[in-house]
Amino acid sequence: MGCKPTLCHCGKLLDGGNPQGRVVRPRAGELTVCVRCATVFVFLDGGELEPLTAAQLEELPGNAIRAIRELRRVIEARRS
Ligand SMILES: [Zn+2]
Fold first, then answer.
1. With CB atoms 3.0 to 4.6 Å apart as the test, which of 23, 39, 51, 68 could cross-link to 34 if both were Cys?
2. What's the 62 CA to ligand 1 centre distance in angstroms?
3. Based on the structure, what is the number of domains in the chain?
4. pTM given for the model
């Protein structure tokens, strides 16, 4: 499954990216974070991205929440 490029509400085009040169083939249910505004998205069956709702965010396991917090800290540090 490829990622269907999706425009984040902040204006950043989310295209799955290729972190460290690797080709990423996301699976449905996997999460990604916008590198500009740190919004959390989930991959759907067809590769589309949908932003997580506040309720969905609260249901995430602790390790995912810690990873998202760390990413947000990095993104905000880079902005300032
Ligand atoms: Zn964004």
1. 39
2. 23
3. 1
4. 0.81
